[in-house]
Specification:
The chain is α+β, with helices and mostly antiparallel strands. It has helices at 2-21, 43-55, 90-98, 102-123, 258-264, 279-287, 294-302, and strands at residues 65-67, 70-74, 77-79, 125-130, 139-140, 252-257. The strands form two sheets. Strands 1-2-3 form a three-stranded antiparallel sheet. It has a three-stranded antiparallel sheet with strand order 5-4-6. β1 (65-67) and β2 form a beta hairpin.
């Protein structure tokens, strides 16, 4: 099937280049490149003070000197040497920035999807969020995924891969079918928010263009806004999917079985893991270490050969 739809669109463009390198490379902060001079706040003033002290015959402890891979620029200021990326792509830049912490950051970013993928492989029920015309999931969903109604998937009634109608089990909730909505800013491409002082990720909510959250909209039908005085009759996301750049309303939540995914040409089994076609990143998602494939070997060892899609 066209080389499994070009290997699932090259593993969803390498999981959208590690969610636009949301591990930090997507920050709007401007980083100096190799060859540029680095301006450190206070360094100029410190130099002037150092010069005055030397003229007075006094000593200062702010002279430049290398120490354990760092340079002391002036008293109270240090910089780490810049190691330029070998390539100009975002992934290489992210690796150059985070170095030994890159694997940990990738694992943290994909923890919810890893857990969802592992459960799907075990149960044979795959829950994904994608645009209907896509042959890959933008996000793999699990029990901790949030519904438009504000409740988690595990707060909804039991489900199978046969029907998408999974109503909410929470008392007084009118939700008739689980509909995924991002619950973390990085899922909506808003990576920079976590860098803001005092930002509370738990308080973040996906917003409509009417400036009210999804929880302030009706969980049924067209999702009209319930806020008094608001004329919004349809939830229109003010954000886009971090994986495909489409709006929330252009996606649907799918409940699939292993058989239905086989027939539709969708990934299943070990191929459903994040970065399944890229061993180093797949290992980083599973263990936090690019060179550690022990978790992956344990997963494949427990799978029957009929479920091992990558070997077919």
């Amino acid at each position: 099937m066209q080389k499994r739809t070009n290997e699932m669109a090259s593993q969803q463009k390498s999981e959208r280049v590690v969610r636009d390198a949301g591990t930090g490379a997507a920050s709007h902060t401007q980083f100096p490149v190799s060859g540029e001079k680095v301006s450190v706040p206070g360094a100029t003033a410190g130099k002037r003070k150092e010069k005055r002290n030397n003229l007075d015959g006094t000593q200062t402890g702010s002279a430049l000197c290398p120490k354990e891979g760092r340079q002391v620029v002036t008293k109270g200021f240090t910089i780490k040497p810049i190691v330029p990326a070998k390539k100009s792509d975002v992934l290489s830049v992210a690796k150059a920035m985070h170095r030994e912490k890159f694997g940990e950051r990738v694992k943290e970013l994909f923890d919810p999807e890893r857990d969802a993928a592992l459960k799907a492989i075990q149960t044979g029920i795959y829950i994904g969020w994608r645009s209907p015309e896509y042959s890959w999931d933008c996000f793999r969903l699990g029990d901790a995924s949030k519904c438009f109604c504000g409740h988690l998937l595990n707060e909804h009634k039991s489900y199978s891969g046969i029907s998408v109608r999974v109503p909410c089990a929470a008392q007084s909730c009118k939700c008739k079918a689980f509909a995924f909505i991002p619950s973390r800013p990085e899922e909506a491409g808003e990576f920079w928010l976590k860098k803001r002082p005092g930002f509370d990720p738990a308080a973040w909510r996906a917003m409509c263009r009417c400036k009210h959250s999804h929880e302030e909209h009706d969980p049924t039908n067209s999702h009209a806004c319930k806020k008094k005085g608001c004329r919004c009759q349809l939830f229109e996301s003010s954000f886009v999917c971090a994986s495909c750049d489409r709006h929330w309303e252009q996606h649907e939540t799918f409940f699939d079985t292993e058989d239905s995914r086989k027939k539709s040409g969708l990934p299943y089994g070990e191929a459903y893991l994040p970065f399944a076609e890229m061993p180093n990143l797949r290992n980083a998602v599973l263990t936090g270490r690019e060179g550690d494939d022990s978790a992956f070997k344990s997963i494949t060892k427990a799978l029957p050969s009929s479920v091992n899609q990558t070997s077919q």
